[in-house]
Amino acid sequence: APTIGVLALQGDVREHARSLASAGAKPVTVRRPAELEAVDALVIPGGESTTMGKLAEAFELLEPLRMRVKSGMPAYGSCAGMIMLADRIEGGIEGQQTLGGIDMVVRRNAFGRQVDSFEASMDFAGRGPLRAVFIRAPWVESVGTGVEVLGRAEPGDRIVAVRQGPLLATSFHPELTGDTRVHSYFVEMVREL
Ligand code: GLN
């Protein structure tokens, strides 16, 4: 089974680890550079992206994370994790630290202007309807040609799931529903890459 890290600076670390285990991976928590080196792939949970950037810097993980993403490590970012993987952010703060990697513009707190949190039923990667939980979630404003759109959601038919090569991102929190299809999709990606 692939060893998949969960970045454990903040967010639903335990829930992601449980979903990864159900999807057939071996989950481990990542808080230090040496732990990052030991994983085949990484999940970046939700939380608050500006805080996560600061914590990554404080834990001396920012550069190691950027280097591993740049060198092709598969990564899956949920919500704040999606923001971390975006090449460009709308509504970010001055000096906000991210990793980048996916050629897209992500708007922070986009749905939050209308509804702080909500659930929607959506099709994820053609794998049937999925109940998605959004919490002060971003949406994807636009994507480059190399980015595959894996899901859209109401309100607004917004892009909420994307993939570019080894990088996967969703605006929503699949770790909260007990539905492991998104994690299974990621584990399959890791096995294929
Ligand atoms: N609003 C948060 C941010 O901008 C993301 C919310 C979440 O991860 N649930 O980072």
Your description of this structure?
With 193 residues, the protein is α/β, with parallel strands linked by helices. The protein has one domain (3-192): Class I glutamine amidotransferase (GATase) domain (Rossmann fold, 3-Layer(aba) Sandwich). Helix content is 26%, strand content 34%. Strands 2-1-3-4-12-11-10 form a 7-stranded mixed beta sheet. Strands 5-6-9 form a 3-stranded mixed beta sheet. It has a two-stranded antiparallel ribbon with strand order 7-8. Strand 1 (3-7), helix 1 (13-22) and strand 2 (26-30) form a beta-alpha-beta unit. The relative contact order is 0.18. The structure holds glutamine. Glutamine binds next to helix 5. Its EC number is 4.3.3.6, 3.5.1.2.
| The CATH topology | Rossmann fold
The tally of strands reads: 12
Would you list the SSEs in sequence order as H and E? Answer: EHEHEHHEHEEEEEEEEH
Q: Quote the average pLDDT.
A: 96
Strand content: 25-35%
Query: How many helices?
Result: 6
